[in-house]
Amino acid sequence: MMTVLITGASSGIGAGLAKSYAKEGHHVIACGRDPARLEALHQQYPTITVRLFDMTDRGASRLALADCYADLVILCAGTCEYLERGEVDAALVERVMMTNFLGPVNCIAALQPQLASGNRVVLVSSMAHWLPFPRAEGYGASKAALSWFAESLRLDWEPKGVAVTVVSPGFVDTPLTRKNDFSMPGRVSVDEAVRAIRAGLAKGKNHIAFPAGFGLAMRLLSALPACLQRPLLRRMVRS
Q1: CA nearest 107: which of 77, 62, 67?
Q2: How far is Cα 228 from Cα 226, in angstroms, rounded to an integer?
Q3: Which of 32, 44, 74, 108 has its CA 20 to 30 A from that of 149?
Q4: In what order do the strands lie in the sheet with 120-124?
Q5: Is the CB of residue 80 less than 8 Å from the CB of residue 35?
Q6: How large is the angle between the packed helices 103-111 and 137-157, nearest 10 degrees?
Q7: DSSP structure string for 193-212
């Protein structure tokens, strides 16, 4: 059995993964900011222990994770806010970057003394940064930064034997995506997302993207020359 540490475990993909691993008897360290939801997880699955902290706080992350040994670390917490009509809101972009990029970096910095050969760190990114979608400047930039960081870190950690996996979901039916006011093609359930992630990790994949069909369409669009790609994306611009 493994010890699995999961951030963002109070809802969405993080909660789904926590339950999935706990059902099999693995020791799950569920991290998040919602004490009621985390306690409910612990009551449902006694093999789940809880760490309550805000990962955007570097000191709090260091204190909460100082004694955490985990075979598998899944950094799953995230947020999304959109810019409207091209008006740049620096505070909004900062909030998104803090949660989606610097938060995971804080966790990695706190956990790295305990990581050993054979361990794996998983960073949940998004397909959103594969294309420059209107309104998604902050969100796309945060996920692009996270993916770039992970790809570079994988090279530096290879001599240590610590693996790094990037997960790039499309749309997953979570409380976060339910706030979206646009159609979400290829949207999958949390259970489907959990199965896709666990299947990819079981194969030792460095990159896991799902759903396959939507991911292929996104890759094809991202490969188009700018003269063809930009007119398609302009259709999404709101006046």
Answers
A1: 62
A2: 5
A3: 32
A4: 48-52, 27-32, 3-7, 72-75, 120-124, 163-169, 207-210
A5: no
A6: 20
A7: HHHHHHHHHHTT-SEEEESH
Q: Give the number of other Cβ atoms within 10 Å of residue 60's Cβ.
A: 15
Token reading at 35: 């004490």
| Domains (range + CATH), the chain | 3-234 (3.40.50.720)
Which amino acid would we find at residue 112?
Answer: Q
Helices 90-97 and 137-157, packing angle to 10 deg: 30
Q: Which of 21, 45, 82, 139 is catalytic?
A: 139
* 115: helix, strand or coil: coil
User: Is 139 a residue of the active site?
Assistant: yes
pLDDT tens digits, the chain, 239 residues: what are they? 999 999 999 999 999 999 999 999 999 999 999 999 999 999 999 989 999 999 999 999 999 999 899 999 999 999 999 999 899 999 999 999 999 999 999 999 999 999 999 999 999 999 999 989 889 999 999 999 999 999 999 999 999 999 999 999 998 988 888 888 878 788 999 999 999 999 999 999 999 999 999 999 889 988 988 888 888 888 878 76
Q: Closest Cα to residue 32, out of 10, 63, 4?
A: 10
